[in-house]
Amino acid sequence: MRIALVSDIHANLQAWNAVLEDIQALGIDQIINLGDVVGYGPNPSEVLESVRKHSRISVIGNHDAVCALRMCPSVFNDQARAAIEWTQSQLDEEACQFLNELPDMARPEDNSFLITHAEVVAPLNFGYILTAEDAEKNFAACKDSIIFIGHTHRPGLFLLNETGEVTLHEPGEFNCDPNLRYIINPGSVGDPRTEDIVASYCIFDSETRDVEFRRVKFDIDAYRQAIDASGLEARPFFIRYLDAVEGNGESVIPTVGESDYIPQFDISVRMPIVKEKKKMHPLLPVGLITLLIGFAAIAWIMIPRSDKAAEVTAAPAVEEKVAAAAPPSPPEPPAPPKIATKLPVTARYVRISDPKGPFLSLAEVEVMSEGKNVAVKKKARQSSTHSAHMQASKAVDGNRRGHKSNLITHTNAHRPIWWEVDLGQEYPISAITLWNRNEGKELMKRLDGFTLEMFDSKRQPVYRTEKNRGAVYRIDVK
């Protein structure tokens, strides 16, 4: 099966239509969306509708998450936040609900690869995989041999060889060796940050394990007209870049890993751009030497001397030391948030993950705040759903019994396995009670060893415990 991996479309209808036309012309069997369908661009509704129609699997991106209120808009700068607020006004309730229910990670039916928008380590923190060290941490976080990501807008791949070395490679055509591991980024469809302004995606053949990166031209002038007509003031990176330079916009950004460039961060888009290294002027060393000689000559002339050699003392002269001005100390980085292991904590999201069993099943999850269960009837989701009557919402429907399959949640066996509830706002949480599937000891053992995590409204972790005892009907966490 030939699969097209697309990412970071960012409501760019012109780029998406061009890529879709290319995909259809090649007879691709399936499209998988790696996130950030919306944000920045002027056609969020049309693009999202088309992506929903044509994509077999989708995962959530950070712009999607903020638009669906699964992340706080304060994580973005003013320009990106203004674009998201405008985007929210363009989407109906059904579209926002679709974004809200997207998983953070997924796999196809044959488990041939893993997909996520940003990092495997903490998918909803939306960190960047930019270096070999970043890639190494993400390889260690899963066992998949092939991982597809987006988020950086830069096509390329990291390869983990048999000796444990991680290397960065530019996009092209290659075959995935079954003895090696890969993190592959197809680049951005709608907000390119490559050496020429074209839409980028890749094709994966699940039978041959061949990967091909594709680059597709789109109508930039039509996009400009659309964004001007929308009244949207924020502009995506590639438009701002083209506006800032003269010429036709080709070969404006160096390729990944080019040694003459160093990565910097453009605060306005929270993404790596590149700046040319500052080079020393060829006459600068000569000028410095000339200055030093001049200062030495002046000092020699000004030193008082005597004609009588006998009066020269043998005592060494004491040099007057001038302390060099120390460079200002860099500001201390903010301390990482403290993650509690005991209640109470203040949190919005409650997540249960990584049980010993091949599945995760829950009868009910009660989250207590000031004597009330604040989880009941709230929005819940899970990594996968075994069958239609075993949705994530079954664990917050107020029914604890759990002795029938239509009363419990149930995931598939594809890891990572997790269930999560969004409380809608932050609450001071004093206790949590989990009600297990109540159909015999063997089935209850599946929940044993689970991890319990809680996050605040900005998706920062505030609580985490691992290897919790779960092979009983009622589990109390206090």
The largest β sheet comes out as: 6 strands, mixed
- Secondary-structure class: alpha+beta
Sheet-strand content, in percent, reads 25-35%
CATH superfamily of the largest domain: Metallo-dependent phosphatases
Radius of gyration, in Å, reads 29 Å
Spans of at least 5 consecutive residues whose pLDDT stays below 50 are: 248-286, 298-327
Secondary structure tally: strands? 23
CATH architecture tag of the largest domain: 4-Layer Sandwich
User: What is the distance, rounded to the nearest whole angstrom, between the alpha carbons of the first and last residues?
Assistant: 49 Å
Mean of the pLDDT scores? 82
- The CATH class designation of the largest domain is Alpha Beta
Q: How would you sum up the global shape?
A: globular
Domain Calcineurin-like phosphoesterase: 1-208
GO cellular component, one term: cytoplasm
GO molecular function: phosphatase activity
Transmembrane segments: 283-303
What attributes characterize this protein structure?
Jelly Rolls, 2 domains, single chain, 6-stranded mixed β-sheet, 25% strand, Purple Acid Phosphatase, chain A, domain 2, 23 strands, 478 residues, alpha+beta
Description:
Helix content is 21%, strand content 25%. It starts with a strand and ends with a strand. It folds into two domains: 2-216, 4-Layer Sandwich (Purple Acid Phosphatase, chain A, domain 2); 345-477, Sandwich (Jelly Rolls). By secondary structure, the protein is an alpha+beta fold. The chain has helices at residues 13-25, 44-54, 62-67, 78-90, 93-100, 132-140, 220-230, 237-244, 284-302, 441-444; strands at residues 2-6, 30-33, 55-58, 105-106, 114-116, 146-148, 156-160, 166-169, 173-175, 181-185, 199-205, 210-216, 261-266, 271-276, 345-353, 364-369, 372-373, 379-382, 418-429, 431-435, 450-455, 461-468, 474-477.
